[in-house]
From TrEMBL, chains A, B:
Gene3D superfamilies: Homeodomain-like, Tetracycline Repressor, domain 2. It comes from the Bacteria. Pfam families: TetR_C_14, TetR_N. This is TetR family transcriptional regulator. SUPFAM superfamilies: Homeodomain-like. Residues 4-64 form the HTH tetR-type domain. Residues 27-46 bind DNA. The lineage of its organism: Bacteria, Bacillati, Actinomycetota, Actinomycetes, Streptosporangiales. Keywords: DNA-binding.
Length: 228, 228
DNA sequence: TTTTGAATGGTACTGAGTACCGGCAATGCC
DNA sequence: GGCATTGCCGGTACTCAGTACCATTCAAAA
């Protein structure tokens, strides 16, 4: 057990140093030296300094891709909800490592941005899958696919962050519940929940203002006369 | 007209060079030289090489913040939908410039990532606004706020990208329609737990009836007991 | 005329990331 | 054993973004 792989030592060294003196204050040279390897070796194992924190996003993305490709029956949203569980489970498996990473990304803007970009890749994958699955090239279906993908990802992130913060004793149950919530947002396989042409959408809210003062706003929302 | 400001010349030079030889192949030195200024001056006007493409995201973000702060009546979602229109209008005002930027971000990964990060900032702002507005600290309300923010942003991006690609002759109408769609996703009381006495409660639902036909019923409901 | 201040340009530095080369095992085959 | 191949490693040198600092210029204000 005397020698973990160079890759593992690099990751370990990086986390220790980032904790000790902060991310920006740590150079790649520092990490390599601490791990007892050359600088070149660092870049052989990790594409960039940020990469040492997020080693297997690519692998995970591929996992999701495969899972979606192997999806059987059910709706697109169900398949995607199912796939997104995998991501959550992956983080939970990482356990403490995921929490340390979260602590880092919360502090360092560059890392947070990297995380956001990764999440966007998942969302894109989902959007494309849903769009393909629906096979409906209309503008409305396209928007719907976009909304679905965004909702699934948002729900996942919500539960994940809660767990990372230690606020969620049972993230699996929570993500299932959240996914049910998302599914409930999009009723019906294809058809939009609109009655006939000329249907009316009314919004419910509470305000201190008088009803008549609200009428113009209401009318605009409903789509009578587009108002600028 | 002999001398546009250094800032403008830099932006102009950057776009020309990016078109000519690509983003990565263009150095900051190239841009500065072409604009006839020193390298230092470039970084005085733009924080980074990427910044010259996205000059006023910060300003726009502040604009949105102000708009949300000044919001009058309506639900949180309505306020946010309203604010997001501003963003779309800003892009439309930019016109061809926005399209050139889109062409660049489509080709250059680094720029696309930058764009994604910017979008995430809007989404965060919206989420916080909705969350504050709801004033409901439960987990379920928090998830709801997250979903709403994600949906609004997704819908906006959808319309924006369509317009940028030249697929949308009337993006304003489309964004209004898309926002109605988003509103329809989130029915039920989004009311704050506390409202002043004598306030007005309105409920959101979809019906096949004409709005004017509904008005008497609405008034009766509102006039009597605030109903959920 | 003098002073002040803002915009500029130049120089030098840090640090990430890339390219390339040479060394050094371990494994293969003859 | 001798020998070539392959894969991992370390070192050097380079490019370029971004920062820090200083000197200059020029114009408005005093």
């Amino acid at each position: 057990m005397s020698k973990p792989t160079a890759r593992a030592r690099l990751a370990q060294a990086a986390f220790v140093l980032f904790d000790e003196r902060g991310y920006e204050q740590t150079t790649v040279d520092d990490i390599a030296e601490r791990a007892g390897v050359g600088r070149t070796t660092f870049f052989r194992h990790y594409r960039s300094k940020e990469d040492v924190i997020f080693p297997d996003h690519d692998r995970l993305l591929q996992l999701i891709r495969d899972r979606l490709a192997a999806t059987g029956n059910g709706t697109a949203l169900v398949a995607v909800s199912d796939a997104v569980r995998l991501v959550l489970l992956h983080y939970i498996d990482e356990g403490d490592l995921a929490r340390r990473r979260y602590a880092l990304t919360s502090k360092v803007p560059a890392l947070r941005e990297r995380e956001i970009v990764s999440v966007a890749r998942y969302q894109r994958l989902f959007r494309e899958f849903i769009s393909d699955w629906m096979g409906d090239p209309t503008e409305s279906a396209s928007l719907r696919a976009e909304l679905m993908a965004a909702s699934v990802v948002a729900a996942h992130n919500h539960v994940l962050r809660r767990w990372l913060r230690g606020d969620s004793p049972d993230p699996i149950a929570e993500v299932d519940e959240a996914m049910r919530e998302v599914l409930a947002l999009f009723p019906g396989p294809q058809s939009r929940p609109r009655a006939a042409d000329g249907g009316t959408t009314v919004a419910v809210f509470r305000t201190g203002e008088d009803f008549d003062a609200l009428l113009p706003t209401l009318r605009r929302l409903i789509g009578g006369e587009p108002e600028r």
